[in-house]
Amino acid sequence: MREFAQEQRFLVHDLHGGPEALGAAVTVELCGHWEHDGPCRWPHHTTATIVGDNSAELVVRFDADESEVAEVRDRILAGLRVGALQGPDDHITAWGPVEPTGQ
């Protein structure tokens, strides 16, 4: 995996469905959709690991100009706080509270 300049970590509770939906929710917020033309405005990579019962640790690594880092972090959190995502198979993955746990 390539090196990214920034990192944001989250704990996501009450996950009902696949953790890959969390990464898709981040991409939707940053890029408009998980399938988009052209490069990302803010290149990013998301990793979700199941921890405990129905929770996931999420790590989002991204590149942004220093003047945009706070905006990107806010957008990532906003995308996750939506709490659900309908996938390409029309299945809805839902999750509960999201806690930022570090940078």
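Second entry:
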Amino acid sequence: MSRTFTSVNPARPAEIVGEFDTATVAEASAAVDAAATAQRAWAERTPTQRATLVAGVAHALAKQTPELTALITREEGKTLSDSAGEVRKSVEQFHFASQLCYLVEGTTFPSEQPGTFTYTLRSPVGVVVAITPWNFPLSLPARKIAAALAAGNAVVYKPSPVTAAVGEALVRIIREAGVPEGLVQLVQGDDPNAMATLVGHHAVRAISLTGSTRVGNIVREQGHRHARLQAELSGHNAAVVCADADLPRAAAEVARGAFGLTGQACTAASRVLVDRAVLEPFTELLAAEVRALTAGPGDAPGVNCGPLATVAQFERLDGLVRAARRDGTVLAEGTLLDERDPEGYYLPPLLVGGLPADHPVNTTEIFGPILSVVEVTGLDQALDIINQDDYGLSNAVFTSNVASAQQFAREVRCGVVKINARTTGNGVAPPFGGWRASSAGAFPEGGLQALEFFTETKTVYSRG
């Protein structure tokens, strides 16, 4: 078995972006040991000292925005504008986390015993393993690493091999910004034995994973029994268009939520459930939005959808497209920037209708530029369809009726609800996570809630 691997440009797969060493079992174990050693001194730092260094990473990332933007587009494939947005979000994550350093707080309690002072302390969990996918190769690890450092932890970071160069760049910038040596360890590759060693190491006290439900199940099985788990997993998301919706606005938002980032987001919409009263006019508006989309290299002008990230993605989604064409009605398609350029993993956006309810496009995570139109009669039916799904990540409703919006927010079974907005996108301050098959573990990511995951509570009874 080769101990090296390469990442490539999905727009030009013959172009190698970087070559990397696959971590061995011994190297994975050594990374955890080194992180544990570095963490002890980091936990002793004052909040001000930690905040200064975490904020310094934000400034360092911001200074390298052009280089990071180009690298993300070259290695993952998304458009330059989307890559630049990801860099900005990563900068925000570290700025926000620098404030978390001051919020690792305890609580005082009334005592049942005279002369006893009762209070809680929060302590860092210790070593955190952060595992991230390729679709947001900078902002997802930034969200995990920044908050973990703010709470006083060390991190062993395992990026996707597909975007190994972005992962390497992030760790380099963190170290150059002055974060102590050894505190953030990088483990590359996908050797299954090394990965099992990594998550099962006795010194690991928390695992933060973003990935597929399949990978989440593996990590849950292999993780050390004392390690808490935070996992954001697959999504099968829907946008609901009510009869009273602002149809042009809804069409534009649904299209952006389904086809932005080439649909390669766990929060992307793969179904739009449209009230039969507005099915025809809305579909016409949505079809026009889809026809205006262009697939091509992420660094080319006028491109809305970059290539799919891997050949495996292309082959899987090409099969879904063929099945959708066979079993449904094509309502609209995007265009390919250059029909003479078949080299990249390009799949123009596809809008399809009339698929059976049990069709794979309607029942599984798509993670690509395919959107299915489904006719419904009223909000209650739309909610029934969504809530019968195994997943529960991000769903949206478009309506001008406040009561309908509140009903949807109250009754839909998912972790993220959007009202008159696309299913994709989230802020740095609110919590983010799914329900049911879209999560594993009880901890969402982001916001103040991050401290719940990255710290442990200690109750102290003190008598003079």
